[in-house]
Specification:
The chain is built from 11 helices and 13 strands. It has 386 residues and is α/β, with parallel strands linked by helices. It folds into 2 domains: 3-12 and 269-381, Aspartate Aminotransferase, domain 1 (Alpha-Beta Complex); 16-267, Aspartate Aminotransferase, domain 2 (3-Layer(aba) Sandwich), CATH 3.40.640.10. Strand 5 (140-146), helix 6 and strand 6 form a beta-alpha-beta unit. The chain is globular. It binds pyridoxal-5'-phosphate. The site of pyridoxal-5'-phosphate (PLP) has 13 residues, from helix 3.
Length: 386
């Protein structure tokens, strides 16, 4: 038996409609979108345009031209941070941020370009929004916040933080890598100026596609200059969105897979996907809580969480547990720091990290029962000193 519980890294399996959108493009009209005027190129460009429109609807973005495609959330976040921040800017983040936010900001801080404040979080990964208000200075330009933690499953109060930023006239950027497709996001209602998303997790697209939604008054500098298929007679890179931030041929396979992935989740309904996975997560938490020796991290039983469970068994290295789960039981999890040392510092699981079981649309209760039995066996048979 194979059980895939690493959906927070990337979701698997992908819906059949995603696979057929990708193979359909490659088999039937695999041209470079928009670059040439022939019918295949026009069809590919139309598909990309429709995907922008769909993403704009998904996040209630005011303008689909400001939906930018990138290689992944990391790429999108780098485009935004490095294209936006200027000498002397102060940036506020939380202690739950992923390295895709933390590292580029540390890089800019180490270069002497920006000042960075990291707001503390408690063991459950929760932050107090008053700490954000209290850290705002005259040069604070941006707050960047993870929407949902890939380490603990905690969901951050983005609407409240967006409101603080709006009142203080500070830009607000959200890393929605773990939440896009799982929690409804309304960038207008929640005062989000820049939203970074990835296609290969809860939007059920393939790896290699992500992007940004950018509100209309925000100018992000072009970092990668090159061909856009527009204004080609000019030496200067076009200043208008989306071309401003999309040089070179887009990952058309990724965009089309993303479109089918978004259609898949909208067809099922984000609310029903969320209910089903949260029920299963609750079931998993209850099962693990009943096993002596397992310590679960994160927000506990709550409707405001992600469908993942981080845990440890005594002093056993998480990588040993994950290895045995895979080798002896065919259960695929993830062990370690999950690219977020800050979060493990907050949770008290630094530096060894945790074992993470993360659910997707296709997991079942029988699989959870199987995992619980496997963990009981590991604890009893392996005779670990826990
Ligand atoms: C919260 C968070 N942000 C950013 C990323 C980076 O996403 P990507 O792999 O699309 O670059 C991840 C991926 O694990 C994540 O969990």
């Amino acid at each position: 038996m194979k059980v895939y519980l690493d959906n927070s890294a990337t979701s698997w399996p992908k819906p059949p409609s995603v696979i057929s959108a990708i193979t359909g493009y490659l088999n039937d009209y695999g041209a470079s979108p928009g670059r040439s005027g022939h019918s295949f190129a026009i069809k590919a460009a139309r598909e990309i345009f429709e995907t922008r429109e769909l993403i704009a609807v998904l996040f209630n973005a005011p303008d689909s031209e400001r939906v930018i495609f990138s290689a992944n959330a990391t790429h999108a976040i780098n485009i935004a941070l490095k294209g936006l921040l200027k000498q002397g800017d102060h940036v506020i983040i939380s202690h739950m941020e992923h390295n895709s936010v933390y590292r580029p900001l540390k890089y800019l801080e180490n270069k002497g370009l920006i000042e960075l404040t990291v707001i503390p979080c408690n063991e459950k990964g929760e932050t107090d929004t008053r700490l954000i208000s209290g850290s705002i200075k005259a040069n604070t330009r941006l707050v960047v916040m993870i929407h949902g933690s890939n380490a603990s499953g905690t969901v951050m109060p983005v609407a409240g933080i967006g409101e603080i930023c709006r009142l203080k006239n500070i830009l607000f950027m959200v890393d929605a890598a773990q939440t896009a497709g799982f929690i409804p996001i309304d960038i207008q209602k929640d005062n989000i100026d820049i939203l970074a998303f990835t296609g290969h997790k809860k939007l059920y697209g393939p790896p290699g596609i992500g992007g940004l939604c950018i509100k209309d008054n925000i100018l992000i500098e072009t970092l990668i200059h090159g061909g856009t298929g527009s204004k080609s007679e000019m030496a200067d890179h076009p200043a208008f969105y989306p071309d401003r931030l999309e040089a070179g041929t887009l990952n058309t396979v990724g965009v089309l897979g993303l479109k089918a992935g978004v259609q898949f989740i909208l067809g099922k309904g984000i609310g029903s996907i969320r209910n089903q996975q949260l029920q299963l997560t609750e079931y998993l938490v209850v099962q693990l809580n009943n096993i002596d020796g397992i310590r679960i991290y994160g927000p506990g039983l709550s409707n405001e969480r992600l469908p993942l469970v981080s845990f440890n068994i005594g002093r056993i290295p998480p990588s040993d547990i994950a290895f045995i789960l895979d080798r002896d039981f065919g259960i695929m999890s993830r062990a370690g720091i999950h690219c977020t040392p800050l979060a493990h510092q907050a949770m008290g699981s630094f530096p060894r990290g945790t074992v993470r079981l993360s659910l997707g649309c296709f997991n079942t209760q029988q699989e959870i029962d199987y995992v619980a039995e496997a963990l009981k066996k590991i604890i009893s048979e392996k005779n670990f000193n826990i």
